[in-house]
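Just wondering, does anyone understand these tokens?
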Amino acid sequence: MIHASRFLRGALFADTVFSGIAAIGFTFGAGAFAALFNLPEALLRESGLFLIAYTALVGWLASRTTVRKPLVLLVVVGNAAWTVGSIALLFSGATSPNLAGQVMVVAQAIATGVFAELQYVGLRKSGNAVAV
């Protein structure tokens, strides 16, 4: 366990808000977003359902003054993987999003990458171990 710095908790909280909004939108508005972005409805809905669980984990971590370092690292690595996966999706040919869809995928990939970086910096600022 480590003491979570204010910076780390803030980065986790911001990720919670962003991911929570995306979770609600993609889960309950998958059909509308699929038409708007020319992306598969199932991809958007399943992403939204995943983000519900992810938001719960990150929100829980953000609410703690002490956290398990491996859990925070999991979030950082997960965000980095989501960023890479999002860009890879555009180049894979598996989907054919329209311009709005491409902009949305790139924008959320950038935001997720920023969260990964902020959380990593916050983790480095949280160095002190706590005896359990």
The mean pLDDT is 95. Helices lie at 6-28, 30-37, 41-62, 69-92, 99-124.
